[in-house]
Amino acid sequence: MGALISANLQPFFTLFTTRPVAFTYRWRYFAFTPGFWLINSMKYLPWIFSSAYRSYYIPSTHGGPDIRVIVFEPVYGSSSPAKSKPRPLHFTVHGGAFMPGIAEQNAELADRVCKSTGAVTVSVQYRGAPRFVYPAAHDDVDDALAYFLSPKAVEQFNLDLNNVTVSGLSAGVNLSLSASMNHTGGIKAAVSFCGLVDVRIGPWEKPKPPGFPTSNPIAFLEPVFDSYAGPLRPKHVDDPRLNVILAPTDKLPQDILFIIPEVDILLHEETKMVERLKKETQGSDRRIEAAFYEGEMHGFPELPGIVSDPVKCEDAWQRMIGFLRDSNEKGGWKWTT
């Protein structure tokens, strides 16, 4: 409950902070407060009495506060690999336009991955905008992933560093792929849900695909959605750490699956990144795949039955699980429950 309370107080910290946050961001962020609370509560409350995961706090190496993560560990059945066998690691990052959230935003994903692949699965939360701007969130995610690749964590959680995969949703894709660049050769696969891979322009400038709503009732919030990168955009326009669409192919995970809704302003940039990666890896043993979902909007896998087709949402989840299982099996890990 402490994580939820702390997260829900963020709008007040931002509104009244002494940090130099522009008023244009402050009032918009405060206006978003009801939605912010609703999202956090919907993601946290189903897990409030759960014993499926444990919380840990990772030291920051960049001068920030400790970084909260939640860790799901597999339960072994009679036909499962022996508990003494080193286990795959899956590391996932929540979205939300680089604004602060809670690790439980990706709890459903983490739980599914853990149960379906046998991987120790970590969901991380990070400092966010507008109170903190680039590279605060990137630093937090980098530190958390680096910790779980360290000898201490490998021993603590009995991890197999030959089987490390990552995933993210929206801005979490940017953060997970960016963190992967620090560990060339160590990240075997990644899954991108509705990935924000190019922040060289603001959300209001991104090309709108066919079927996109003609009017946007939350357009007034776009400046705060852009507050993490926007103020520093000119300085970092060529920075692949922030704009992972520019990342060298050999710095990215070996295999990547892109889950792409077609009614999303991110469609263009994701498609361009897929095209480039496929071209640059043609003839290699690398696996670059994209699954396009007609009629679906940004964030659709998290919204079945509300604005999304539950069948398509479940298909996206199953594609993710199959992709990660294939990656782990190539690394010598076969999971049976």
TrEMBL record:
Pfam families noted in UniProt: Abhydrolase_3
Record-annotated Alpha/beta hydrolase fold-3 domain positions: 92-300
Q: GO molecular function of the protein, one example? A: hydrolase activity
Q: Which UniProt keywords apply?
A: Hydrolase
* SUPFAM superfamilies reported for this sequence: alpha/beta-Hydrolases
Report the Gene3D superfamilies cross-referenced here: alpha/beta hydrolase
Domain of life the protein comes from: Eukaryota
Name of this chain's protein? Alpha/beta hydrolase fold-3 domain-containing protein
